[in-house]
Amino acid sequence: MIRHTIIELVRSGISAAQAAGALPAFEIPQIEVSHPPKPDMGDYSSSLPLKLANVVKRPPLQIAQTIAKHIPANDAIGKIETAAPGFVNFTLAPAWVSLEVTRILAAGARFGDVNLGEGKRAQVEFVSANPTGPLHIGGARNAAIGDTLARVLDAAGYKIEREYYINDAGSQIRHFGASMYARYAQAAGLDVPFPEDGYKGAYVAEYAQEVLARDGRKYLDMPQPEATRRLGRIGTDLVIAQVRSTLERMQVCYDTWFSEKSLYDSGLFDKVLKMLGDRSLLYESEQATWFAATKLGLEKDAVLIRSPQIIPNPEERPTYLASDVAYVWNKLVERKFDRVIYVWGAGHHGDVPRVFAVAQALGLDTARIQILLYQNVQLTRGGERVTMSKRGGNFVSTDEVLDEVGPDALRFMLITSSANAAMDFDLQLAVQQSNDNPVYYVQYAHARIAGILRNAAAQSITVTDGNTALLQHPSELALIKQMLKLEQVVEFAATKLEPHHLTHYALELARAFSGFYDDCPILPPKQTDADLMQARLALVRAAKQVLARTLDLMGVTSPETM
Description:
Layout: H1 2-19, E1 44-46, H2 48-56, H3 60-70, E2 77-83, E3 87-92, H4 94-107, E4 121-125, H5 137-155, E5 159-166, H6 171-187, H7 202-215, H8 224-249, E6 256-259, H9 261-265, H10 268-278, E7 282-285, E8 288-291, E9 302-305, H11 320-334, E10 339-345, H12 352-361, E11 369-374, E12 377-381, E13 384-386, H13 398-414, E14 423-426, H14 427-430, H15 438-458, H16 474-496, H17 500-519, H18 530-553
Parallel strand pairs: 4-5, 4-10, 5-6, 10-11, 12-14
Antiparallel strand pairs: 1-3, 2-3, 7-8, 8-9, 12-13
């Protein structure tokens, strides 16, 4: 990766300057390299001299000039300049840039891969919505973020496993069962009141009618508590089946569907609870079992098992944190993941420090845990807020949005903003066939590229490897430089867990191709130089490959025609 090459060149320049006595001895800090704000300032820039001023006791610009003077020659670098107040700017050599097209083509569909993970096992657990109703648009954002991160981490050299954690333990299943029982009895013609705290969406009645059609009235012939329990389980199975279907429509598939209930049935929860007790991190108060989180630096202790006076059913008394205690042990110890990533809604921000605290309490390496929080999504259409649907009751289901905009627009738009920023999803924009719609603009660029290659075939032009050294036009070089950034984007997104950089990169790449297309004739009759035509066709093929890879990392298709 050229960014890494430049970092090492800066390091070599400092070491050489120190060896020559031009700079004093000091430990070289972490070197950051970024892209300057203006093209005339170069392709890459390091501001390290600004940080070294206090150490070296010299003006930053003088430090920059000293470092630049001692940087060794490299075929990739055409020019090194310094700029106030203390920058070292690098411009890539055009001859080197043009030859990178060959490397891109040789890498094929895996161009953009980086070996950040070095084969370590990483798990991304995402969506994990309660199995009490269809997936809503917030869950869809979770899915788009989580699956894109999994794809990025795979490209970054990790062995990835995707997991859906099914919250099938606890009181919400009982509440859902009571809702199912009421709708089931009503569908059978009985006048049964609906519970005040029940799930009111029309989907509950649909599930109940499905059960009645399949199983008849048999659940009315058993005690109501037993019927409620059974219908709760049947209902959750129907929800999970529907959620699976919805996620598959979004091109999201999982390696594991993990049951929360299994943490208790397997005895794991009792095991880790004893571990916390042995470490004097549990105590009883008000008939509840508390985790002594304050001993680990948190402001408040937390309930693990609620009092029987509050929750009579023992199976429903453990809190979400209780499950998290066993679950984090299962991930890091029993299944030995090197890196585990949770994707949670922002409403769970209060749970984050507690998860790290229980991991610390169990003696686990908390550096292996990352929790990504995302903000809510507001649906709009033509400036009007869309807040609910008849079927969902108080929310719009992901299936309804998929029916309207399709999976490509849904996935792309849901990761255009940083996860920590609330976002508006404009349903009208998502289906608009114009350059204002980012997914349309990017996909159209891919279709345009495919069209050029079809046109070449229609003209009976045999595509060869091409002499890419001929690619020296500024728009050609700008496109190649943009393609080379994909490796950096993958590395950054995998390190920072920020998939939104892919959408911005895809737009920049599409714009760079548009500039090249406008400035550089590719095929006859406008292009009459056969060698240059072949070189540009090689660039076109490379651009198609890189754009398709970028879209695939987002789970978005690459259309050949539009």
